[in-house]
Hints:
The structure holds two protein chains of two kinds.
Chain A: E1 3-13, H1 16-26, E2 30-34, E3 40-43, E4 53-57, E5 62-70, H2 73-85, E6 91-93, E7 104-108, E8 114-118, E9 148-158, E10 163-164, H3 165-175, E11 180-187, E12 193-200, E13 208-213, E14 217-225, H4 228-240, E15 245-251, E16 258-263, E17 269-274, E18 287-290, H5 294-298, H6 307-311
Parallel strand pairs in A: 1-4, 5-8, 9-13, 11-18, 14-17
Antiparallel strand pairs in A: 1-5, 2-3, 3-4, 6-7, 7-8, 9-10, 9-14, 11-12, 12-13, 15-16, 16-17
Chain B: E1 4-9, E2 15-19, H1 24-30, E3 49-54, E4 57-59, H2 69-73, E5 76-78, E6 82-84, E7 88-92, H3 97-102
Parallel strand pairs in B: 1-7
Antiparallel strand pairs in B: 1-2, 3-5, 3-7, 4-6
Amino acid sequence: MGVLRISHINLRVLDMTAALKHYEDVLGMEKVHTDSEGNVYLKAWDEWDKYSVILSESDRAGMNHIGYKVEKDADLDEFKQSITDYGIEVEDISSDALEFVGRALKFNLPSGHEMYLYADKEYVGTGVGTTNPDPWPDGIKGAGVHWLDHALLMCEFDPEKSINKVAESTQFMIDVLDFYLVEQVVVGPDGCFQLATWLSVSNTPHDIAFVGGPVMGFHHCAFFLDSWDDVLKAADVMGKNKVKVDVTPQRHGITRGYTIYFFDPSGNRNETFGGLGYLAQRDRPVTTWTEDHLGSAIFFHTGELVESFTSVYT
Amino acid sequence: MSEFFSIYIEETGEVFKCSDGQHILSAMASMGKKGIPSGCHGGGCGVCKIRLLDGTYKTEKMSRTYVSEGEEEEGIALACRVFPMSDIHLSVIGKLRKNILKKTTAVKRYGFV
């Protein structure tokens, strides 16, 4: 039982035409649906459920909500109870209120971010099927991302005012949703404040991450690529399409991932995350990064923090 | 052939050229100039907030989280959504402004924050 993985993210975009060009031609996702309100649904080729990204046109950028899929319908009843017991209000969402999705739970993380849990989403199959499949389908555009991999959410952090929504949200994910801590950054006297955390519910180094900042927000969502070569090619695609790249291909100290940070046309940060880093396990000891090694933790090669990494988000 | 305009930054006295199809922030960054904080280049993050003091220009949609309708009418905009139609004189008002002016970074007490 329990949470399986990140299932979708709903992002606000300023211009749908420009956004679609980015998610289709640069990332290589496929548009699968437009609903009556004009929200557009997209799927990556290696995903088997109907969609993983919903784009909503708005007058501001950022994230509306994030959805995680659980294994069994009955899990929803157990989670409703445990989330309520934790002191967080849960709303029952009827089947198909989220299109192509069964009944769902809606609630806010301690950080304020809106989250959905559900067990059913329409199955459509991967781009290569399940019988004698090819390793990849023909006709992939752009970077050809495999799947939505994880998201990093910015949480309010102000120790002087005793506010640490990173620590609170992390504790909630562990205590209630049964995620486990994989890596963390600690700061302050004797590392007493959790400034950033990376949590898994599967075997990938992170299924969600939280980082502290002055206000809550959306830092990035990441899409999976196989290898370093794929990351290089993705960067080429970004150069060809004049995508605003935040950080060129590099390795993260944290998670060991191969990364590129870049922005969609509305300023929402995306990442292509290559390699699996390592096999995350529930009994694997937690990796801790200290304040004096923050640069290496995020950008391992230069070992230097990039100002935009924590000051620019939507 | 593109037409080029001069962009003048009040605080630093920095001047750079921008073509008519290019936004101000892109012109600044591609020529290695500094003065306006550079963020998402998509009108979403708000760090490149400026006040346009003189000149004509077109703007594209920018996040209402950072530029209200009233501010937009007063000539406040995000540099990454401003396309010049004449020479431009501007002032920087974005949240990272102090970093640019002091040539040092803001004091961070706890790593990122």
